[in-house]
Automatic annotation (TrEMBL):
EC number per UniProt: 3.6.1.7
High-level lineage: Bacteria, Bacillati, Actinomycetota, Actinomycetes, Propionibacteriales
Keyword Hydrolase: yes
Top-rank taxon, per record: Bacteria
Pfam families named among the record's database cross-references: Acylphosphatase
Name of protein: acylphosphatase
Keyword set, alphabetical order: Hydrolase
PANTHER family in alphabetical order: ACYLPHOSPHATASE
InterPro entries the UniProt entry points to: Acylphosphatase (IPR020456), Acylphosphatase-like_dom (IPR001792), Acylphosphatase-like_dom_sf (IPR036046), Acylphosphatase_CS (IPR017968)
Active site per database record: 18, 36
Keyword Hydrolase attributed: yes
Matching PROSITE patterns: ACYLPHOSPHATASE_2, ACYLPHOSPHATASE_3
Amino acid sequence: MRRVRVVVRGAVQGVGYRYSMRVVAERAGVVGWVRNRDDGSVEAEVQGEPSQVDTVLAWMAEGPPGARVEARDVTEIEPTADRDFAVR
């Protein structure tokens, strides 16, 4: 099991990033959450099998149409007991 915390910077708020990510995460079979941050970035935690997490990370590097991802910071963290994927 792998869990990562990701902060995505660029034009990522107001373009449906969080809600699109929930769809991608559910299709990939991962759990965790995504939220907007006050600085204009989007933060998420994603947990699942390594290949599932990699699928979501690849999508996060591009985001939905209308987004412009300029940077993505990924940090490995300890898995938790999340049971679903939430938009916060």
